[in-house]
Design a protein that fits this description.
By secondary structure, this protein is mostly helical. The chain has 13 helices and 2 strands; from the N terminus they run H-H-H-H-H-H-H-E-E-H-H-H-H-H-H. Helix 5 packs parallel to helix 9, helix 9 packs across helix 10 and helix 10 runs antiparallel to helix 12. It starts with 5 loop residues before the first helix and ends with a helix.
Length: 222
């Protein structure tokens, strides 16, 4: 019986990440990925039962490596208000990176494809295994900040979607559509500061008011 290992799984994900990026989803096959690995399809299928499952795992790995550390850093910030601009800056810089742009274009192209089995499920799978999980983590962090009185009471999930919308504007959208090749560091920094400012104006509570809210919450817990 073949023993699975995390090292081999990561090797498969790395190869699949390359092949999906080069060929797109539709033109990639499990046979092609196994050829890139230099192994057999049997080994590949012992880790992932289908191309869809493997693609979803690749998307989760991309999100884990690119977005996970940013959210961990934001979580460690004593006050999300002070850490939000840095988070937005790093997130925008990631969103305009070559690989992320390449994968987003791949997903958009695949989303409308209709095959023998009906409309492609790749976009939904990618969302469920990537952006949705990290949007939920941002919403959970924001809910905790709301509880502390630093942000006004609102629907944390809707607020997370608003944050995502701010991130996906210019210059990210301009890169995705091929209007510009790559924004300068200053353009990214400026856009991130503006996005953070809009979000904070919409949801953050002024420092004095936040302090009073936390004091009130503490008294209630007693």
């Amino acid at each position: 019986m073949r023993v699975k290992s995390e090292e081999k799984r990561q090797e498969i994900l790395a190869a699949a990440r390359e092949v999906f990026g080069e060929n797109g989803y539709a033109q990639t096959s499990m046979a092609g990925i196994s050829t890139r690995l230099g192994g057999s399809k049997g080994t590949l299928y012992s880790y992932f039962s289908s191309k869809e499952e493997l693609f979803a795992a690749v998307m989760l790995e991309i999100a884990r490596v690119s977005v996970g550390p940013m959210l961990d850093e934001l979580e460690r910030a004593a006050d999300m208000r002070s850490g939000l601009a840095s988070f937005m800056h790093k997130a925008m810089r990631t969103l305009v990176s070559d690989e992320i742009v390449q994968y987003r274009r791949l997903l958009i192209g695949e989303a409308g494809r209709i095959g023998d089995a009906g409309r492609s499920r790749v976009g939904k799978l990618a969302y469920e295994h990537g952006p949705r999980q990290y949007l939920q983590k941002f919403a959970d962090l924001l809910a905790a900040q709301m509880h502390e009185g630093r942000f006004r009471q609102a629907d944390p999930w809707r607020a997370a979607l608003h944050m995502q919308g701010l991130l996906m504007g210019a210059p990210v959208q301009l890169v995705l559509e091929g209007v510009i090749k790559r924004p300068s560091d200053e353009q990214i920094a400026s856009a991130a500061r503006a996005a953070a400012d809009v979000f904070l104006r919409a949801y953050a509570v002024e420092a004095d008011a936040a302090g009073k809210a936390r004091a009130s919450a503490t008294r209630k817990r007693r």
